């Protein structure tokens, strides 16, 4: 592959070969080197460059000092090796969006009808004798009126254009917002590099080849690199290889680190060897055609369509953000997910279940659409039959050739009426309302420190019934300090003075803490005078370093004396070890190992302890139990986290021990001290938790701490209230209770545990995931649970991903956690979660408000058009008027009702849960109640209005007759009633005061007033296109008066208690388990939206087939065009099944540079041949 790219540098990423001369190694060399793995790579480095230091020399960088950071040098590196940036796909242009909006079926039907109508209006039958065609053509006053027949067609087309432009503009602004969000996430991604000997954090895009980067547990690697120094480094490369096993990296065996992979354990330093399009992720992107300048590449693309799916990250825009998915986005998304998920045999969509609201909406829209279709078909049939029977049977005329155009004109008119009924029945405003509401909320949530990565997460949060929260950093301040210590047989309740401790003990303690901690952890002076010192790195280690400083010692000189290179072996902290150890080689050939970790774990490994004299004495199991009882438990009950610090000497004469046998190494330790670390509860947390509990949300704490500490903190936070029988379990006990004899988790057992469980202590990542999955899948209780999870560590990834909404910490969170999350809390604060709940509920309510309003309009308009057409052969509301009602009422009302700001009162009700219907009984009562009022008024006006207003009747008007005052009044009254009903729709829970807080929403006020003004203009000056004629001031006052009646009628309706109206049905339910056909509930399959499945099944299979074939052709093609080397990324791929735990593209939205692209199974098929 290397040679291919050398000839054709992709776009701006590389310059012509000449610039490589400044460095002793060219980009091509580095790229071919990075494609090798493990042993091959080690040999290649040894043969060509001597060692990694040799590569550093050629790249003119120092492994210790790093680059100089001189702008000229950085620029040179950019020119020679490219920038660390993968150009995103070009956004869709406005015209493309317009074209997509035009694909809407109802609009197409309207366009066709309008064009036929236009064509016929210009076609005049040659001398067609009016008499011969019956009274059909009668009543055309003069030629001028007859000529005006084209206006209706033109007006329909014009309305269609407006609807399309509005939709396209919305999509465009949505995409723009989304890209803004994207770039904000990218700018916030920083990485630690060494420049001029200083450890600094720089944005990922500024990393250059030759930089020395520090990597640690939880990082997502932003570029390819070669390891210079590593401690116990393990990498999850599943995003590139599909192998779920963690790969050990070391200088001797496998020093190659690839971009887009996750550091699961350990730490180290690497020299960056490839960035941007030349890194492994970049190469894959290029293969998939995600980079720009597709034409220049040898891999020609066959149609944009496929790129857009492969480059899911970029096109995530189209998918993630369309709340009611367009057909295209949905298939491509399902296809994506399909190829990335485990190859499931059935056609069920193994993706994170559609958000709760989307599922309900899609279902409702399908139901409404079907009803509208039937109504419109019936209307057309009745109209045509009536006309045919009346003309040919009753009047007994015969069909004459020259009358055909006139008859056809009638049929077209009937067809247009039918389409109008359909247009009014389908609530086009729905997707718009959802989009506006979500986009508005997301924008505002930024101010409340919620960075929303997946739009629907914000609305799902409103349904949350449970929050599983991490303790450290979320509920507590994550500013750890040592407050108690047990040293030399004495339990100090405050940090002791250095002179009361034996100097030897003190020496050992200080050395142990200073050396056995990540050197990236340090305590810096405060930024502002009088502030607290800044803690950088691991907070627990900061607390221990703080203890060293409190003991009037300094850790820096010790670290300088023993740099990381001198460490013989490091066992880094991980979630299964729960301890960390560092081994040093002594001058006499022996070894000393310092260890620290959770006290109950490390004490079990101790066989001796330093006494008051600083001498090791025997430490038996019974001594240990006493110590646990007298020291550790009292500390834990004060909410302290206990850490044990220990050491062990390996004498030289015993020879070198087997370092890989951890159980033997981590044994026979000598305990130096046990310290109690306090992490104070954030002051605002107890109130926030109380708010959650009032709002019907259960907060559970899941932590790695011991159970007493956890219980103490849970009580301080208010998660555990005195006098309630809640469970606090340790991970081990939890597993015993929920697993059967074979060790499998059983849902029935879990259902007995989780409702009472409030604290899960000493839990592993798997426990957290099991708990979250168990609660989500559980069917006990009145409603299904919707679970939010907060986390900051790499180990929280699986649980964050499984949860309905995952919150990651913006400050303390690792990249892996952010990658797996839906919302990032930029201030790491639990209170922001409460804000998210408030916004989420507000979105849900806004959409319900809009539905309540919209469906009233629909019901009334459909019935009026239908009955009117059947009784008077002409819809009282004309096509253009219907479109105007549809446009203003849908588009503008969605704007007005979707932007209501949230109020605290939203937190006083219980959450809706997964299966509560979208349209409650109260809303149904409002919809039908208002519909009755409107229908009575309109039919009264329609059939008796001429007497009431003393005007001519507009019924039975001939084909091209001018608009009548009568029908204008009907139209005007209809719009006035909708306007005032829009105010009623502001409340959906049957509240009395519909004006409450109306000034807090300027958009609402301006929309209502604006619509009113437009309506005046249309009626007074709309004339023929709108079938309106100007009204007098009296008539206007009557129209407005009837409209105001809506508000009074609304009061009357809300006085009727809903519980008496048992006959009212609810609509828009979520899917219940019972409705899913058995065979689709395959193991681990999420629920699927069936309404959508029915529509899509055929299409998906068809498109997937095509897509597979194309991908394969592409891959083959790429390999044939002169690539000798098959890219390393494709080399090792025995299994794709293991990708399910892959924190990759299924939910990837982070910067394009970091995408873990899971290779789809289709590609793998090829490589194996």
What does this structure look like?
With 1169 residues, this protein is α+β, with helices and mostly antiparallel strands. Among the domains are: 28-68 and 188-287, Calcium-transporting ATPase, cytoplasmic transduction domain A (Distorted Sandwich), CATH 2.70.150; 450-475 and 683-828, HAD superfamily/HAD-like (Rossmann fold, 3-Layer(aba) Sandwich), CATH 3.40.50.1000; 481-678, 3-Layer(aba) Sandwich (Calcium-transporting ATPase, cytoplasmic domain N), CATH 3.40.1110. Strands 10, 11, 14, 15, 16, 17, 18, 19 and 20 form a 9-stranded mixed beta sheet that branches. Strand 14 and strand 15 (579-585) form a beta hairpin. It is elongated and about 120 Å long. It starts with a helix and ends with a helix. The model is unreliable at 1-20, 135-146, 290-353, 1072-1096 and 1122-1169 (pLDDT under 50).
Give me the secondary-structure topology.
Layout: H1 2-7, H2 27-34, H3 38-49, H4 52-58, H5 71-81, H6 94-102, H7 105-121, H8 143-147, H9 150-188, E1 190-195, E2 198-203, E3 212-216, E4 224-236, H10 238-241, E5 246-249, E6 256-257, E7 262-274, H11 280-287, H12 304-310, H13 312-321, H14 327-340, H15 356-394, H16 404-425, H17 429-447, E8 450-452, H18 455-460, E9 466-469, E10 481-487, E11 490-492, H19 503-515, E12 522-524, E13 534-536, H20 539-550, H21 556-561, E14 569-571, E15 579-585, E16 591-598, H22 599-604, E17 606-610, E18 616-618, H23 621-637, E19 640-650, H24 662-665, E20 669-678, H25 685-694, E21 698-702, H26 707-717, E22 727-730, H27 731-738, H28 747-753, E23 757-761, H29 765-777, E24 787-791, H30 797-802, E25 805-809, H31 815-820, E26 823-825, H32 830-872, H33 879-898, H34 921-949, H35 965-984, H36 1002-1021, H37 1033-1055, H38 1090-1120, H39 1161-1167
Parallel strand pairs: 9-21, 9-24, 17-20, 21-23, 22-23, 24-25, 25-26
Antiparallel strand pairs: 1-2, 1-3, 3-7, 4-5, 4-6, 4-7, 8-26, 10-11, 10-20, 12-13, 14-15, 15-16, 16-19, 17-18, 19-20
Helix pairs in contact: 6-9, 7-9, 7-16, 9-17, 9-33, 12-13, 14-38, 15-16, 15-32, 16-32, 16-33, 17-32, 17-33, 19-20, 23-26, 32-33, 32-34, 33-35, 33-36, 34-35, 34-37, 35-36, 35-37, 38-39
